[in-house]
């Protein structure tokens, strides 16, 4: 994003982050740098599902308010239902340069639409078996031929 801004390309850089990933110091170093350099061509999308590999994000690190946190690092922040793809698309296409980077907090549910996956951190790294795939297809209303 910095190189694009310096070169005057007018293009945007999009970065997808997980809320568990935001417990790493390198994220906040990059966040501070982006606001310092007024990278209004940088758009972050935070998948705020509240889960990470082994547990709830809030049980590992108690971040109370993502919006407040990103704003304190000099970012413009917008929140959206991450499952409402039309709203998310409108949100992303409506971002205008305002002298600071933008973070879109997309509130989601991990594994949405599949009962055994919804809100279950085990599925962060677990591979589904044949029985699981059958349940997934049924609950998501996917026909076998649609997978080919």
Percentage of residues in helical conformation: 25-40%
Q: Mean pLDDT across all residues, rounded?
A: 91
- Helices and strands, in N-to-C order? HEHEHHEHEH
Number of helices: 6
Strand content: 15-25%
Q: How many strand units?
A: 4
Identify the strand order in the major beta sheet.
Answer: 1-2-4-3
Q: Describe the biggest sheet? A: 4 strands, parallel
- Tell me, what's the shape? globular
Query: From the helix content, strand content and strand pairing, which structural class follows?
Result: alpha/beta
Quick structural overview:
This protein is α/β, with parallel strands linked by helices and 148 residues long.
Search tags:
alpha/beta, 148 residues, 4 strands, globular
Task: Report on the architecture of this protein.
The chain has 148 residues and is α/β, with parallel strands linked by helices. Helix content is 33%, strand content 17%. It is built from six helices and four strands, in the order H-E-H-E-H-H-E-H-E-H. Helix 5 (85-93) links the parallel strand 3 and strand 4 (102-107). The model has no long low-confidence stretch (mean pLDDT 91).
Q: SSE layout and pairings?
A:
Elements: H1 2-7, E1 13-18, H2 25-36, E2 42-48, H3 57-60, H4 66-72, E3 76-81, H5 85-93, E4 102-107, H6 130-140
Parallel strand pairs: 1-2, 2-4, 3-4
């Amino acid at each position: 994003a910095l190189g694009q801004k310096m070169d005057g390309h007018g293009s945007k850089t999009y970065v997808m982050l997980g809320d568990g990933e935001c417990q790493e110091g390198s994220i906040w170093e990059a966040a501070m740098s982006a606001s310092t350099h007024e990278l209004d061509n940088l758009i972050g999308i935070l998948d705020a599902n509240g889960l990470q590999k082994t547990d709830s994000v809030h049980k590992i690190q108690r971040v109370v308010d993502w919006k407040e946190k990103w704003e304190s690092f000099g970012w413009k922040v917008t929140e959206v239902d991450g499952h409402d793809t039309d709203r998310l698309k409108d949100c992303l296409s409506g971002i205008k340069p305002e002298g600071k980077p933008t973070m879109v907090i997309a509130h989601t549910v991990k594994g949405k639409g599949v009962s055994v996956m919804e809100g279950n951190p085990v599925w962060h790294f677990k591979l589904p078996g044949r029985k699981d795939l059958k349940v997934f297809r049924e609950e998501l209303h996917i026909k076998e031929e649609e997978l080919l």
